[in-house]
Structure formats: structure tokens, C-alpha cells
Design goal:
123 residues, 4 helices
């Protein structure tokens, strides 16, 4: 069974109606069970919000592909060629000259005993 909202109803009202249906699934199922008492069990009810516009877009894409549509050549970065947009560089080409230390001494490792845990295990 499908429930289709009118086109005259706005998106907010459609969402509110969907939310109401989801919140009231149990009472709706109970009302159905009262009316369908001749059945042994009442089927589970789930509500799904369908995006008809997206479904139409997918159907159009399937039609294009099935008729032999070939996508035009598009460059790596979205343009007609593989040229990077202005202000961008590839990571391989970029030069990184970061000096995160304020001091220039390279003997920082001498201040720490990295084998400290190994000495405790031997004792």
C-alpha cells in the first residue's frame, strides 16, 4: 500500500505527516488488527519516505546508459583538462619547510631514556 502526499502540501507538512506515521505505527497496526480479526496475524508495518525526484533522476541515467551514452572526457579536477586550479599544488610537488621546534638542537633524544621500560622488566 502506498500513501502519496498531495503536491499542494509543503515539504514541512510532508515531513510532519511522515513523522506522525512512524510514531504511531503501533496504534495503526492495532487498529488494523481489530478490523482484520479474521486473519491469524497482522503484517508488520513500515513507512518509507520515497524521494521521487531522485528516482526519476536514476531512471533517466539508466535510460542514457542503455542507449549508449558516453560521458565526455573530463579531467582529473573537473575541467576539460588535467590542469590544477589556480592556487593548488600537488602534494608531490609541494615543498614542506616546517620547523616545529623553536630551538635548533637536534639532540632532543639524548634527554630521554627510551629503554627505561626494558630495565624494569629485567629487575
Amino acid at each position: 500500500m502506498s500513501i502519496i502526499a498531495s503536491d499542494s502540501v509543503g515539504e514541512i507538512e510532508k515531513r510532519q505527516a511522515f513523522t506522525w506515521l512512524v510514531k504511531n505505527t503501533v496504534p495503526i497496526r492495532h487498529a488494523l488488527s481489530q478490523r482484520l480479526s479474521h486473519m491469524k496475524s497482522v503484517p508488520q508495518i513500515t513507512f518509507v519516505q520515497a524521494d521521487v525526484g531522485a528516482a526519476v533522476d536514476v531512471m533517466n541515467l539508466i535510460d542514457k546508459v542503455s542507449t549508449g551514452f558516453v560521458r565526455p572526457n573530463v579531467g582529473k579536477f573537473g575541467a576539460d583538462d588535467d590542469v590544477l586550479p589556480d592556487g593548488y599544488t600537488l602534494e608531490e610537488e609541494a615543498e614542506f619547510n616546517f620547523d616545529l621546534d623553536d630551538d635548533d638542537d637536534d639532540d632532543d633524544d639524548d634527554d630521554f631514556d627510551f629503554d627505561e621500560d626494558d630495565d624494569d622488566e629485567d629487575a
